[in-house]
Amino acid sequence: MNIIRYIIMLAAFAILSRGVQAQDKAVTGSIYDSQTKQALAGVSIKNSKDQLLAESDQYGHFSFQHSGADQIIRFVLVGFKTQELNYTAKEGTLNIQLDADESNLNEVRVTGFAGNRSKKETAGAIALITSKDINRGSGMSFQQALNSVPGVRMDQSTLSEARISIRGNGVRSSFGLRNIKVYLNDIPVTEADGTTRIEALDVNSIGRAEVIKGPASSIYGAGTGGVINFQLQRSPYGEQSFEASALAGSYGLHKLAATFRSGGDQINSYVSYGWQEYDGYRQHSNDMRRFLSGNFQLFPSNKRIITLLLNRTTQYSQIPGSLTASQVAADPEQANASNLDKQAGRYQTWTRVGLGQLYKFNDRFSNSTSVFTYSYDLNHPLPYAYLRNFYQSYGGRTSFTYDAGFDVLPTRFIVGTEFNQGLTKGTQYVNNQGKEGALTANIDYRNTQYSLFYQSETKLGSRTLLTLGLSYNSLKYDVSNYLLPAQSGIKDFNPQATPRIALSHNFSEALSLHASVSSGFSPPSSSEVKNVDGSINPNLQAEKALNYEINAKGNLFHSRFSYDLALFKMDMKGELIAQSVQQGITIYNNAGKTSHNGAELALSWQALKPEDKNIIASLRPFVALTYSDFKFRDYQTLNAANQVTASYNGNKLTGVAPWVLSAGLDLETQFGLYVNLNYYYNDKMPLNDRNTDYNPSYGVAGAKLGYKKQLNKSFEMNIYGGVDNILNESYSSILSLNAVGVSGGQPAYFNPSPKRNGYAGLSLKYFL
Question: Counting Cβ atoms within 10 Å, is residue 438 exposed (0-12), middle (13-18) or buried (19+)?
């Protein structure tokens, strides 16, 4: 008996010893936002019994004692999806990554204006688009997601051309994007001269996008419209998977894609390849794309995060061109005769590489630095010429953040710089029915842009924050014309200083108020600085804007109802006015002032409580409403002798609708069925500066039905189908504003959008 008692005592002691050793085992790590890499403070760390083990500090760090008897650890933070971890499979320091919860976007952290605060706490009009928003439709375009943001409009009738405007800025662009800065993983997509094309971005590889509406020059440089910062997807924490997907639809739509994901504590990898083809709704509108994207995030230590971006895209697009009203009525599917004869198209390959590092010297001092190179080759037949361009750029962005640790008026300081230099080697030929003819131009553009910026955030109280910002910006164009050397030269714009001041106060969960005054500027692009003879216009300067804004944001009914209201007044001067002097030749002058006054409202309601465990897991209706009162205040056209030929003072701003409405409904069930409904209404709007021609109002509705289910531990399936333009509306999304009729004929304003069309897709994910 003594031997048995002794054995039992030894066994009990061994068990207790193992328990003590497990309890004595310290677990340490850091917690980040999976998309922005920003540290997350206030994350509750709980065990399977919902007992609090620890809470992450203001720098995202945590530490607690782990019990081997409790293997499940939960990480909980409002605005983010709860992350569960089986600790038995983990070793070393943890780098937990939380995904944003789309059901409560007001609480999601945003990086706009270099902050790391919730959307509700951030002064200014900032909208957040998630991958869920992007995939509410077919996933072929950003149009539906961006048009769900009040104040933002993306026009796109074919895949070959897109135009984005924010609060009316950029709507007058003749091609691509103007007046808006675009970033991908904090690396500029916008070229050094201010032009942007987003065709190189794979829609399905984007994890989220932040949209800053209004001037953000104090920290992002030129751009009166605002900023769009796209982030490539990052792999969910703890997941290793391979996914294959296929999509087919009307008008010859086909798409195949493959994606590899691996989300761990030391490295997060996301690699995708996509292939798509689309015959198009109209004649001569075929589009083919190839996408290769790689996004890698490394955690070599708890002080350093390294990111690597690789992106290569090929585009072969035919351009059908604009039609007159009579041509649309006769046959909306036809192509413009000149575009068809000249075989107009865009054939381009982009390559982008970026390397970044976030380094914490200590808990108060950190640096974020990224360097990049970006190139493309362009083969571009147009109705009036045949263009061949090669573009190569390089640059970087760095910012230092310092928390001074003041006991009184705690302040965080940010200083940084951004540099971007691009070289365009361009040749132009006569277009002989889609083939190169005689050489007509051989011009190199070396464009250099840089900005220095400063920002401070001071807590005036526990709920009040004062933000001060200032940037200094410079831009220079160096033009070398090899056929006409006399037209070579340098255009060095006057440096611009752009300040911003913002004050925010958080009254409660139901209400936070923000007021801001900000300035911005947008210089003309390298193609806009030329006179009629091709020489540089030395008098042309940047557009300038001054924006006054009040925002109210909050959550009601236990955070199930969220709202975001913005009232703004923006005055612009020195606006660039385009004047067509002959076919294919347009010159620009600083000859206008405009007023942009408006209101924007976004509402979202989680109709069901998650804890109710209904068959319907989620039901979310949402509405985005925009009112725009935009007018010309001082706008006159001039002839060659600088004499006034027409005055449009008091006219409505061309291409801007007074009212725009976007609404939708998302429904998800417990067993995997989901439904997405959407509706977009665009009010009647002027097509020319004279306000004599208008585009009629239109409304477009769409629906998507899908079933997503994890079949077993190894496979997850998502099958879906949808219909766009259910009401079979006849409309044009993208319009050629201020078009001029040939020989007194009708102007070709319209690019008809597809009638009712459908699509269906299937994806299968295998967990490794």
Answer: exposed
CB-facing half-sphere around the CA of 233: CA atoms within 13 A? 24
Average the pLDDT over 58-68 and give the result: 77
pLDDT at 91: 57
> By C-alpha distance, which of 650, 673, 646, 677 is closest to 662?
677
- Contact 269/281 with Cβ under 8 angstroms? no
Q: Distance (Å, rounded) from C-alpha 124 to C-alpha 215? A: 10
The half-sphere exposure of 204 on its side-chain side, counting CA atoms within 13 A, is 25
Four-point Cα dihedral 724, 725, 730, 733, nearest 10: -60
Question: With contact defined as beta carbons under 8 Å apart, do 471 and 451 qualify?
Answer: yes
Candidates 182, 185, 203, 184; CA nearest to 37 is 185
The whole-number pLDDT of residue 663 equals: 97
The mean predicted confidence, pLDDT, of the chain is 87
Rounded Cα distance, 274 and 697, in Å? 35
| Three-class secondary structure of residue 338 per DSSP | helix
Measuring CA to CA, which residue among 549, 641, 630 is closest to residue 592? 630
Query: What is the number of helices (H) and of strands (E) in the chain?
Result: 6, 44
By C-alpha distance, which of 748, 655, 750, 757 is closest to 700?
757
Question: Which residues touch 276 (CB under 8 Å, ≥6 apart)?
Answer: 140, 247, 253, 254, 255, 256, 287, 288, 289, 291
- Those residues whose C-beta lies under 8 Å from the C-beta of residue 337, and which sit 6 or more positions away, are none
Question: Is residue 34 pLDDT above 80, yes or no?
Answer: no
For 445-488, what is each residue's pLDDT tens digit? 999 999 999 999 999 998 999 999 999 998 898 999 999 898 88
Whole-number Å distance between alpha carbons of 62 and 454: 31
Closest CA to 124 of 38, 221, 215, 36: 215
Assign 217 to helix, strand or coil: helix
Euclidean distance between CA atoms 50 and 36, whole angstroms = 28
Distance in Å from the first CA to the final CA of the chain: 53
- Give the pairing of strands 44-47 and 72-76: antiparallel
Quick one: which H or E segment has residue 9?
A: helix 2-23
Residue 493: its pLDDT value, please?
A: 83
**CA quadruple 595, 733, 526, 453: dihedral positive or negative?**
positive
> In 4-60, where do the E strands start and end?
25-33, 44-47, 52-55
> By three-state DSSP, how is residue 486 classified?
helix
Taking the C-alpha atoms of residue 59 and residue 165, their distance in angstroms, rounded to an integer, is: 37
Would you state the structure tokens that stand for residue 712, as one six-digit string?
């077993």
Please state, in angstroms and rounded to a whole number, the distance separating the CA atoms of residues 127 and 141.
18
Phi, psi of 23 (to 5 degrees): -65, -30
DSSP string, 273-333: EEEEEE--SSTT--EEEEEEEEEEEEEEETTEEEEEEEEEEEEEEE----B-HHHHHH-TT
Alpha-carbon gap, residue 449 to 472, rounded angstroms = 11
The alpha carbon of 491 is separated from its chain's Cα centroid by a whole number of angstroms, namely 30
Which of 56-60, 107-111, 247-251, 292-296 has the least mean pLDDT?
107-111
pLDDT of 90 higher than 70 = no
Q: Please give the Cα distance from 521 to 222 (Å, whole number).
A: 5
Flag the least confident range among 56-65, 393-402, 468-477, 499-508. 56-65
Q: In whole angstroms, what is the distance from residue 133 CA to residue 163 CA? A: 19
18 neighbors 46 (Cβ within 8 angstroms): no
